[in-house]
Amino acid sequence: MPTCGHHLVATAGTAEAEVERLLALSATSVDVGQTGREGFAILADPEGHEFCVLHRPPSG
Fold it and tell me: What are the φ and ψ backbone dihedral angles of 24, each rounded to 5 degrees?
Protein backbone atom coordinates (compact mmCIF):
# COMPACT_ATOMS: atom_id res chain seq x y z
CA MET A 1 0.00 0.00 0.00
CA PRO A 2 1.56 3.35 -0.99
CA THR A 3 2.09 6.02 1.61
CA CYS A 4 0.47 9.36 0.87
CA GLY A 5 2.90 11.43 2.93
CA HIS A 6 0.22 13.61 4.56
CA HIS A 7 0.62 14.49 8.21
CA LEU A 8 -2.00 15.70 10.63
CA VAL A 9 -1.03 17.03 14.01
CA ALA A 10 -3.75 17.42 16.62
CA THR A 11 -3.56 17.56 20.37
CA ALA A 12 -6.41 16.89 22.76
CA GLY A 13 -6.20 14.98 26.00
CA THR A 14 -3.79 12.08 26.26
CA ALA A 15 -2.61 9.83 23.47
CA GLU A 16 -3.91 6.81 25.33
CA ALA A 17 -7.40 8.33 25.55
CA GLU A 18 -7.26 9.22 21.85
CA VAL A 19 -6.29 5.66 20.89
CA GLU A 20 -9.22 4.32 22.94
CA ARG A 21 -11.58 6.84 21.30
CA LEU A 22 -10.41 5.90 17.81
CA LEU A 23 -10.73 2.18 18.56
CA ALA A 24 -14.32 2.81 19.71
CA LEU A 25 -14.94 4.55 16.36
CA SER A 26 -13.93 1.40 14.40
CA ALA A 27 -10.18 1.93 14.05
CA THR A 28 -8.12 -1.22 14.51
CA SER A 29 -4.66 -1.75 15.98
CA VAL A 30 -1.94 -2.65 13.49
CA ASP A 31 0.93 -4.90 14.55
CA VAL A 32 4.14 -4.30 12.62
CA GLY A 33 6.39 -5.76 15.29
CA GLN A 34 6.28 -2.90 17.79
CA THR A 35 7.76 -3.51 21.21
CA GLY A 36 5.56 -1.01 23.04
CA ARG A 37 8.45 1.41 23.61
CA GLU A 38 8.19 3.28 20.30
CA GLY A 39 6.23 6.27 21.58
CA PHE A 40 3.39 5.80 19.10
CA ALA A 41 0.48 3.51 18.29
CA ILE A 42 -0.26 2.35 14.75
CA LEU A 43 -3.93 2.15 13.84
CA ALA A 44 -5.92 1.65 10.66
CA ASP A 45 -9.21 3.22 9.66
CA PRO A 46 -12.08 0.96 8.53
CA GLU A 47 -10.77 1.09 4.93
CA GLY A 48 -7.31 -0.09 6.01
CA HIS A 49 -5.45 3.23 5.80
CA GLU A 50 -2.76 3.18 8.48
CA PHE A 51 -1.94 6.13 10.72
CA CYS A 52 -0.02 6.76 13.92
CA VAL A 53 -0.98 8.37 17.20
CA LEU A 54 2.12 9.83 18.83
CA HIS A 55 2.45 9.62 22.59
CA ARG A 56 4.75 12.63 22.60
CA PRO A 57 5.59 15.38 20.10
CA PRO A 58 8.09 14.39 17.42
CA SER A 59 11.62 15.65 17.99
CA GLY A 60 13.35 17.77 15.43
Answer: -65, -20
